Amino acid sequence: MNWDDTSPVTDDTQAGRLVGAAADGEDQAVEAALRPKSLDEFVGQERVREQLDLVLKAARQRGATADHVLLSGAPGLGKTTLSMIIAAEMGAPIRITSGPAIQHAGDLAAILSSLQEGEVLFLDEIHRMSRPAEEMLYMAMEDFRVDVIVGKGPGATAIPLELPPFTLVGATTRAGLLPPPLRDRFGFTAHMEFYEPVELERVIHRSASLLDVEIETDGAAEIAGRSRGTPRIANRLLRRVRDYAQVKADGVITRDIAAAALAVYEVDARGLDRLDRAVLQALLKLFAGGPVGLSTLAVAVGEERETVEEVAEPFLVREGLLARTPRGRVATPAAWAHLGLTPPHQATGGNGQQDLFGA
Ligand SMILES: Nc1ncnc2c1ncn2[C@@H]1O[C@H](COP(=O)(O)OP(=O)(O)OP(=O)(O)O)[C@@H](O)[C@H]1O
């Protein structure tokens, strides 16, 4: 494997967060050991696996290079892992880079021209590539050719360069962010969904056995329920629970041990961490469930507006605990139930917060 960009795909706003979906330094070190190596080992995503299996088998039967593949989905759902599996299943080498690492078309030309025949090029965060590089990629994907521009101004000339056939695997958090001409050049697009708790249980059992940790079925279920549908988070929580089990007990992960360990790390039964709960608590206790503006909510929890919007809210919205409305953020009945509080209109018999904070 060849890494062009070894910098972790991290997001500063997620740094140090146990339930953050972006990879941190420790994740990077351990993930290599935990990555499934074949489609059979890859847990969940049944539809994607089945479709990809067909695409790869057909290419192998034809003795051809596999079509370009676009993987979309949230961080930590297994896009990098799948790209490595694609290379392994095709018996091809893989080169890994990312959109932000390719700022000039020349950077991309250098990578493309050094690819071997059949090689898989994994381009993470493909939506963050520079515009000129993106345009070069169109031609490379379609015709396996690039025009390298030599010189500047009126004297500049384009030198055509033939490329060996290769498979581009692009990854993006949202396929909708890609310009249509780029999206259209992928022969196969897979959207990766968040994982069901039972699937995460399988991920956890598999990782526990690779890490040589003993875990009971209930213990795995307890961790899975708090992993926010994301294998990377499941693996990270497993490592923290393992520490706890080792230091405070006999090393075996039971349901009680998992629950106690994750209470120490302030990850609650639904996977909310301290920040998520602080946002919900402020919304419920200070603003009677809203609607309240984002900036006001951010001040109330002592965080930046962006942190609340980008770090806490997406998961709260996905969990059906918070709604973004034109008039501001509003707590749902599930939020009141989750924090064990009673909505004011139930206590007073009217829709108190709407009247109190209405326009
Ligand atoms: N389906 C799966 N089965 C088992 N383990 C998985 C699966 N998907 C992901 N993992 C594990 O989760 C971790 C994160 O996966 P991966 O790095 O592939 O995610 P990603 O989608 O590429 O994330 P990012 O977008 O942040 O790069 C890896 O350690 C991998 O082993």
TrEMBL record:
Family: Belongs to the RuvB family.
Gene designation per UniProt: ruvB
Stated role: The RuvA-RuvB-RuvC complex processes Holliday junction (HJ) DNA during genetic recombination and DNA repair, while the RuvA-RuvB complex plays an important role in the rescue of blocked DNA replication forks via replication fork reversal (RFR). RuvA specifically binds to HJ cruciform DNA, conferring on it an open structure. The RuvB hexamer acts as an ATP-dependent pump, pulling dsDNA into and through the RuvAB complex. RuvB forms 2 homohexamers on either side of HJ DNA bound by 1 or 2 RuvA tetramers; 4 subunits per hexamer contact DNA at a time.
The UniProt record lists the keyword rRNA processing: no
Annotated spans, Head domain (RuvB-H): 269-359
One example GO MF annotation: four-way junction helicase activity
Gene Ontology cellular component list: cytoplasm; Holliday junction resolvase complex
Subunit architecture: Homohexamer. Forms an RuvA(8)-RuvB(12)-Holliday junction (HJ) complex. HJ DNA is sandwiched between 2 RuvA tetramers; dsDNA enters through RuvA and exits via RuvB. An RuvB hexamer assembles on each DNA strand where it exits the tetramer. Each RuvB hexamer is contacted by two RuvA subunits (via domain III) on 2 adjacent RuvB subunits; this complex drives branch migration. In the full resolvosome a probable DNA-RuvA(4)-RuvB(12)-RuvC(2) complex forms which resolves the HJ.
A Pfam family the protein falls into: WHD_RuvB
InterPro entries membership: AAA+_ATPase, AAA_lid_4, DNA_helicase_Holl-junc_RuvB, P-loop_NTPase, RuvB-like_N, RuvB_wg_C, WH-like_DNA-bd_sf, WH_DNA-bd_sf
UniProt xrefs under SMART domains: AAA (SM00382)
Compartment list: Cytoplasm
Region annotation Small ATPAse domain (RuvB-S): where it falls in the sequence: 196-266
Domains (record comment): Has 3 domains, the large (RuvB-L) and small ATPase (RuvB-S) domains and the C-terminal head (RuvB-H) domain. The head domain binds DNA, while the ATPase domains jointly bind ATP, ADP or are empty depending on the state of the subunit in the translocation cycle. During a single DNA translocation step the structure of each domain remains the same, but their relative positions change.
Biological processes annotated in GO: DNA recombination; DNA repair
Start and end residues of each AAA+ ATPase domain: 65-196
Record: residues binding Mg(2+): T80
Residues annotated for ATP binding in this entry: L34, R35, G76, K79, T80, T81, E142, D143, F144, R185, Y195, R232
Protein name: Holliday junction branch migration complex subunit RuvB
EC number(s) given by UniProt: 3.6.4.-
Signal peptide (from-to): none
Tagged with keyword Acyltransferase: no
Catalytic activity entry: ATP + H2O = ADP + phosphate + H(+)
Keyword list, A-Z: ATP-binding, Cytoplasm, DNA damage, DNA recombination, DNA repair, DNA-binding, Helicase, Hydrolase, Nucleotide-binding
